[in-house]
Amino acid sequence: MRLILFFVFMPLIELFLLLELAELISGMNTFALVIFTGVIGALLARHQGFGVIQRLQAETQQGRLPTTTLVDALMIFIAGALLITPGILTDVFGFSLLIPVCRSVYRRWITAWLKKRVRVEGVRMDGFTQETAGNSYSHDAVIDSYVIESSTPKQDP
């Protein structure tokens, strides 16, 4: 429901702000500003996107999991989409996503949000231990299993 409200009210707010800006600086200047921010934003997002792609390649070649770089790539992609969308608020948020300091703040917020809502589990099968997100369980953990085929012959009493 929140998402629907967001997509209904956000364009209305953007339109209101653009009309108010047009009253202040004229319609042509507002139009030129929208075009200018779209072009500059797209160029900046493209430039930073290429840098992130290079970092992704370097980290994967080194065998590291590029989690921070992937989040940066997603934020730069969103920034590009926001900057080519006409609007004042979308431009401000889009440009903030292109500033590395702001991106690190957003990354911390996203990480904290994900940690509250996502649980990552991994199972290691050596020595009958199970680990969940860095926490190991004791040997009294329950292992769910069933027999598919038995190779021992039945003995009659």
Could you walk me through the main structural features you see in this protein, from its secondary elements to its overall organization?
- It is built from 5 helices and 2 strands, in the order αααααββ.
- It is mainly α and 157 residues long.
- The chain has one domain.
- Strands 1-2 form a two-stranded antiparallel ribbon.
- Helix 1 (2-25) crosses helix 2 (27-61).
- The termini are far apart.
- The relative contact order is 0.08.
- Mean pLDDT is 82; it is low at 130-139.
Q: Give the rounded overall mean pLDDT.
A: 82
Oligomer: single chain
| Rg from Cα | 26 Å
Q: Gap between N and C termini, in Å?
A: 67 Å
Strand content: under 5%
Biggest sheet: strands side by side, in what order? 1-2
Element pattern in H and E: HHHHHEE
Query: Approximately how much helix is present in the residues?
Result: 55-70%
Shape: elongated
Number of strands: 2
Total individual domains: 1
Features:
68% helix; 157 residues; 5 helices; 3% strand; 2 strands; elongated
Give a brief outline of the structure.
The protein has helices at residues 2-25, 27-61, 67-84, 88-98, 100-117, and strands at residues 131-132, 135-136.
Please specify the SSE layout and strand pairing.
Elements lengths: L1 H24 L1 H35 L5 H18 L3 H11 L1 H18 L13 E2 L2 E2 L21
Antiparallel strand pairs: 1-2
Helix pairs in contact: 1-2, 2-3, 2-4, 3-4
